[in-house]
Amino acid sequence: MCLFKKKKSEVILNSTYKKGQKVSFKRRDDIDPGIIYEVRKNNNGEIIYDIQIGGECPAIIKDVNEKDIFPR
User: Fold this and answer.
1) CA-to-CA distance for 53 and 40, rounded, in angstroms?
2) pLDDT digits (tens, 9 = 90+) for 20-63
3) Longest pairwise C-alpha distance within the chain
4) Which residues are CB-contacts of 4 (< 8 A; sequence separation ≥ 6)?
């Protein structure tokens, strides 16, 4: 029996980067490669991204601003 339902996320159509796109992003004064995992809006209405990094044991970096992302 499942007591919790998954929240449906809002589809963001006017984002610069799309879900599944390969990008590089600035993190800890370094540039890391990754794949866009989720596109969301924060409370201020700005578009933020969750980015998946790693291969065999992936991790998700949450709340990356659009200004810190570069296309690959």
Assistant:
1) 18
2) 999 999 988 899 899 999 999 988 888 999 999 988 899 999 99
3) 45
4) none
